[in-house]
Structure formats: structure tokens, C-alpha cells
Amino acid sequence: MARRLLIVVLVLLALLGISQLVIPPIVEQRIEDRLTAGGGTADVSLSAFPPMRLLFDDRSRITVTGRGLDLTAASGNGEVLSNLDGYDRVAVSLDHFRAGPFALASFDLTRAGPAAPYHLVTRGRTSPTELASFGTSQVGLPGGPLLNFLGDEVTGPENIPIHLDMNVESDGGRIVVTSGTGEIAGIPTGPLAELVTSVVAVQL
């Protein structure tokens, strides 16, 4: 009996070791492929114990770095952070890339723990024309209030500088800004943060 129990334990440990070697690289590669489909480079690191948790919405950590990416977003249901909410700790850092209508010099989204808010810091630029054009091709994408505002208030090619530094929380995947609210060139930063984040987060 003891021998059989030992064999079962050894088999389970072997399967655990194999899954740790196999599952994370597969999931990491899938995310990297999505991020780099339009060009650029990306590196993704995931962790979970046991590693089978990576196959479900119950994970420990995701770390993403990238540069020179060209990201576009499919239509969404407004649950911007739903892909990231399953991770206890989040660290996404992207440089010099395109995200839909935004040319971003930097994008950093972090979360220190499962109960902590997300911290978003990003710099870049866009224009009313780019935002309006992007909105018409992405029906249902989060940021509808922003697009309506633009349609009513402003059009043209002028660059809009973007500098966001705010804490946000997830309400069923939807962004709720808890600090750092305001306006940039008359545009509310809450919907702007939602739109910027949606283009990145949908790839993760």
C-alpha cells in the first residue's frame, strides 16, 4: 500500500514538473504572437502554481514588455480589464508603439496585488480625426462617451498630447478611475484612459 502511494505521489510530481515546463511557454507564446502580429517585439512571462491555473482565470503574475508594436483592437463589450483581472500581480511596460489611434511613447500598467488598484501611466499623442475615424470602425469599443464628445465638440488634424497618471479599479472588467481624473485638451481623461487601455489589454 505504501509503495503504491509512493508511486502515485511520484507520478503526480512528475506531471506537475512537466506541466510547469510546458504550459507557461505555450500561453506566453500565444500572447506574444497577438502582440507582435502587426510588428515589433514583445516578451511575456507568466507564473501560477499549479501551472494548470494558467488555463483558467486564476493566475499569479503576468509581466509584459514590448517595443515597436502596432496594435489594433476588435470590437469589445466594455470589459477592458477582464483579461488581466485573473492575475494577482500585473506589470505591462510598452515603449514607442501604435495602439489604435494613439502613438504612444510609453505605456505602463501595474498592479501590486489582487486587492490593489491598477496604476496607469502613459505618454503619447493622438488627434480628433484619428479618434473619430477609429471609433467609426470599432463599433461597441469602450470609450463611447469620448467618441460622442469628440463628434459634438472638436474635429481636425491637431495633435493632442496625452499624459495620463492615474489609479483605476476594475468593476467586472470595466475601468473605474479612482484618482487622477481631469481633462486633456478638453477631453475627459476617464474615457480616454479606457480607450487607450482597451487597445492594449485586449491582446493580453
Tell me briefly what this model is.
This protein is an alpha+beta fold.
Give the low-pLDDT segments. Answer: 8-17
The strand count comes to 10
- Termini separation comes to 46 Å
How many helices does DSSP assign?
4
Approximately how much beta-strand content do the residues carry?
35-45%
Q: So what's the overall shape?
A: globular
Order of helices and strands: HEEEEEEHHEEEEH
The major β-sheet equals:
8 strands, mixed
Look at the helices and sheets and give the structural class: alpha+beta
Structural Rg:
20 Å
Q: Could you estimate the helical fraction of the residues in percent?
A: 25-40%
- The average pLDDT score comes to 76
Q: How many separate domains make up the residues?
A: 1
